[in-house]
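Structure (tokenized):
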């Protein structure tokens, strides 16, 4: 029996540039045998493909950095009643690009508390005390040293409908407490997500399910990389000049980033 899948996607301001690439790739590669509905939270007047029946365009004003990311669980809850109708809910960062099939291996079970996330590439093969959990006791996202097993990326998470909405409710509540107290979690929604998953057993997808394009990757990965030959999902580099650069996307500047020889050299390295 086909499952009902809700894809949660936020593109406000200049981030709309990623949608044209995301939608066709997700349609082709992500759980292609199931029924997907896209909940697209955007302030764009026109959305490519919006005439398609599986796209719900939901107005979402741009909140400004970092609230565009920090408030995402509250944003999802604005559609709570609709989302209750779906078997699974999945959130993908705007700059997600599907490269090959992602099937039922991504669906969490009761053993996983019906929750899943991606393994953050920056902490591959690192120990928990090296993770950048929020170490500020004043934040609701606080995790002390000596705790934790995984560092979950905020760019990919999902789960069974009821479990995921329960998580959204709790994280929206904790985020509001921090805001009321004048506290900004270190990595915003991602810090909150890691706090919530601390005593859960989520399905953790390996790095090839959110493979970074960016040049911060450790040099040892260039030629000795266990994931490079089977990249399922690419996290495209928001700092790349083809998107104008990260500050441009966030609306912090109107000047687009331009290509430079150093960046071109790095891109050639990654393709080797």
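Design, position by position:
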């Amino acid at each position: 029996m086909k499952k009902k899948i809700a894809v949660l996607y936020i593109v406000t301001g200049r981030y709309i540039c990623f949608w044209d690439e995301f939608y066709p790739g997700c349609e082709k590669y992500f759980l292609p045998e199931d029924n997907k509905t896209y909940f697209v939270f955007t302030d764009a007047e026109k959305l490519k493909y919006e005439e398609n029946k599986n796209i719900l365009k939901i107005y979402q004003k741009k909140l400004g950095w970092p609230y565009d990311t920090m408030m995402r669980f509250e944003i999802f809850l604005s559609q709570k009643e609709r989302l209750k109708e779906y078997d699974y809910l999945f959130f993908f960062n705007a700059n997600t690009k599907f490269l090959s099939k992602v099937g039922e291996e991504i669906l969490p079970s009761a053993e996983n508390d019906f929750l899943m996330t991606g393994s953050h590439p920056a902490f591959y093969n690192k120990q928990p005390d090296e993770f950048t959990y929020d170490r500020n006791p004043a934040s609701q996202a606080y995790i002390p040293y000596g705790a934790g097993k995984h560092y979950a990326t905020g760019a990919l998470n999902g789960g069974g409908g009821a479990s995921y909405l329960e998580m959204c409710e709790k994280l929206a509540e904790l985020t509001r407490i921090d805001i009321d107290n004048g506290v900004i979690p270190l990595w915003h929604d991602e810090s909150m997500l890691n706090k919530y998953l601390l005593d859960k057993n989520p399905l953790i997808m390996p790095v090839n399910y959110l493979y970074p394009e960016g040049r911060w990757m450790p040099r040892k990965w260039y030629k000795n990389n266990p994931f490079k030959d089977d990249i399922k999902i690419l996290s495209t580099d928001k700092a790349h000049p083809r998107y104008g650069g990260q500050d441009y996307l966030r609306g912090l500047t109107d000047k687009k980033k331009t290509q430079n020889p150093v960046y071109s050299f790095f891109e050639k390295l990654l393709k080797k």
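Reviewer-requested clarification: The first strand starts at residue 4 and ends at 11. The beta strands are 4-11, 35-42, 55-59, 88-92, 96-98, 115-119, 152-160, 203-205, 211-212, 233-235.
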